[in-house]
Amino acid sequence: MALHVITGAGATGSATALLLAEAGEHVRIVTRSGGGPEHPLVERVAADASDPDALTALVEGARTLYNCAAPAYQDWRTAFPPLAAALLTAAERTGADYVMLGNVYGYGPFDGPLTPDLPMAPTTAKGRVRAAMWEDALAAHRAGRIRVAEVRASDYLGADALSLFTLMAAPAIRAGEVAVVPADPDVPHSWSYTGDVARTLVAVGTSTRPEVWGRAWHVPSVSELPLRGLADRLAAAAGAPPARVASMSDAELAALAAADDLMAEVAEMRYLGDEPLFLDASETVAAFGVRPTGLEVVLAEMARTPVHSPV
C-alpha cells in the first residue's frame, strides 16, 4: 500500500482519491476545511497547501503528490503562484512524484488540434499563470530535482463539475429557460468528464515508466459537440423541454463583469468558446488505454444531481 497525497477535494480531487482508495492505496487528501470523500483508506486533513512546511510534512513518505486544488477563479493571479511554489517545494523536499492538473489556458489561441507537445504561448493573465506553473515544474524536472507530469483537461462535465457550461448553461437548460452563454454555441468543442480526468491522473501518477514524466498528457474527451448540441443532449437526458441557447454579447458580458468579480475574469478567456477547440488525447489512449466515458453516461449523471446555482 503506497501513500498518495492529493490537494483539493473538488470533483476531480475526490474522484482521484476514490479511484486510488478503491485500488487499495492509502490516500491523504488536503484541503483548508478537511473535506473530501469518505472511505476507510482516505485520510482527510485540514491544512493550508500554500504553506510549504506544512505541506512537506504531509507529503513525507508519499509516492505521488497530485495537485487538484485551485484558488477562486478571480484570485488566480495572486493566490496560484504561492500555492504552486509550495507544491513544487514539497515535491522537491520529499522526492514524491508530482502530477499537476492543468488546462488549455497556457497554449493561448491556436488554429488546429491542441497536442500536448505544443509550447506555452499564453495571451491572457490566467494563461500566463498556468504556463509559469508548468515551466517552473518542468525546469525542476530537467534539473533532476523532481519527477513531474501535467494532465490537461478542457471544460468539465459531470456531477459537481465546475465550468461555464455547468454553472451558466445547465441550470437554465434543466429549468426549460434560455441559456445565455459567453461563447459561440455552434462551434465544435472538446469536453472533459471529471471521472476521466481522475482516471488519467491516476494512470500517470502510478506509472513507473520514465517516458511518462517530464511532459503533458491530455484527457480523452467525452464529446466534441458544439455547446448547443450538448445542451440538446442534456435536455433530453433530464426530461426537460428542448434546449434554447443564445450567445451573450460583449456588452452583456461587460455588464456582468462590472457587477461580479468572477465574471470579470471570463472575458479574457472568451476566445476558448468562440473558436473550435479540439483536444488531441490520442497519446493518452495509446500509452494508458484510458478511453472516454460514454456521453450518455455522463449526461445521465448530471441529470440526476442537484442543479448548481447559476453564476
From TrEMBL:
Residues 5-207 form the NAD-dependent epimerase/dehydratase domain. Transmembrane segments: none annotated. This is NAD-dependent epimerase/dehydratase family protein. It holds the Pfam family Epimerase.
